[in-house]
Amino acid sequence: MTTNQPRSFGRRLWWIIRTTLLIFVLAVLVAAVVGGLGYAGYLGVLEIQRSNNSLAMRIDANEQNLNSLRDLVNTEFAQGNPEQQVQINQLENEVALLTRHLEELQATRDADTAVQTEQINTLQADLAAAIAANGVLSEDLASVQEALVALQSDLNSTGGRVDELGGDVDRVRVQLSDLDDALTAFREEAFVIHDQETADLAQSLTMLQLWGVLTNARLALLNDDVTGAETAVNQAQTLAASLTAESDSATELVLERLQTRLDLAVGSFATSLSTAAQDLEAASRELTLLLSGPETAELVEATTAVETQTPEAANTTTTPTAVPSPSETPLPSATPVPTATP
Length: 342
Known about the structure:
Blueprint: H1 9-79, H2 82-192, H3 195-222, H4 226-241, H5 250-268, H6 273-292, H7 294-309
Helix pairs in contact: 1-2, 3-4, 3-6, 4-5, 5-6, 6-7
């Protein structure tokens, strides 16, 4: 399904310019055609007039010759000279010949006049069509002029909005300058903060992100989305590899167990999804210990060591220190890290 979107200002401007150019080119072509037809008609009329004048002059000359011969014949006939009679006969034959020639010239003139009349009618029809097309082009030009007036109005209003925008830009520049000063001061103050605090904050954020990824992986397994779970576990491995801990500390041991559980979970996807779920649950438990802080990790490690050395202590009535259940997976809270106040 397509939606009709209003034309942008640039597209409307391009359409008006293109239409104006096309109409101008058509107007030039029509004007050239009309001029050519008019000039051809003018030349045709001149040719017709020249032909008529030539024929009229030839007819007048022939009539004058005939009159002269007729007078000469009448004069010679009145004198009654036999030789002149012969000349009269010859002259009569010449007159008959000239008469036939005159008739042929008149017939040719009539045919030429008919052809030229037909050409003139055709030229007049073409001229009328060209005038009608010129009228249509004049209407189109008027429409284009109206569109140009509307475009000029839009440009004027756009200029006003641009001026207003310029004022807003100046105000924003002042505000950005103030903000830049504030950011500079904050940056200088942030550089004073100890590098360890920044590292702790990044560590806490990474653990929180890892906790969210592990939760997504476990939910994906519950929803039978194996592909989504594998993707989440791969991302969790990357995040766990970016975590750091002090050497030979309880936190380092917990982090190693977390990374080991993630590696085992990746290998269990191809064999047993239930094993992969157990590995992810154990990884969540280790991550919960990391989020609880190094003190909790050391306490759990000490408790585990005591239980390993005296396994019979499990039969006593002493209640061990409670460890968060991985099945509950509560939303952990990262170890507070002092932040700088700008």
